[in-house]
Amino acid sequence: VYTLGMVKSQEGVRREIYLRAGGPNHKEVHYTPIQIYPDDLLKVEVGPTRELGKASLTPLKIEIPKGSRPANHMGSDEADFGQITLETGDPETPELRILVRFAVEG
Fold it and tell me: Is the pTM of this model over 0.90?
């Protein structure tokens, strides 16, 4: 679960996290967004992957744009959270799901 916290609509927020892939398939791993919820609030951008020896590192930018509508995805149950699902290209773990806790105040 990645927590963005409270976001003011008039400010928005942009964060960058890094996805690390290791193991024998790390060079084949690539991330493609296949589902974003709610897609009118969460914007996702996958950056270029860098090789780091026996691992790879990929930046993932997560944004709630300025002017977004009020919303509450801070609940205590994962059904309340936002969600980013990425295809990985890895046969052992074909999808990566990131739950996102946040609220937008107007």
Answer: yes
d(CA 21, CA 90): 10
Q: Determine the Cα–Cα distance for residues 88 and 31; give it in Å rounded to an integer.
A: 5
DSSP 8-state symbol, 80: G
**What residues contact 10, with CB distance under 8 A and at least 6 apart?**
66, 67
Q: Tokens representing 12?
A: 């928005």
**pLDDT tens sequence across 52-98:** 989 999 999 999 999 999 999 998 888 899 999 999 999 889 999 99
Residue 1 and residue 99 in contact, taking contact as beta carbons nearer than 8 Å: yes
**Bridging pattern class, strands 13-22 and 55-64:** antiparallel
Residue whose entry in the numeric block shows the structure tokens 């927590």: 3
Residue 105 Cα to chain centre, angstroms: 20
Instruction: Let me know if 12 is exposed, middle or buried by CB neighbors in 10 A (0-12, 13-18, 19+).
Output: middle
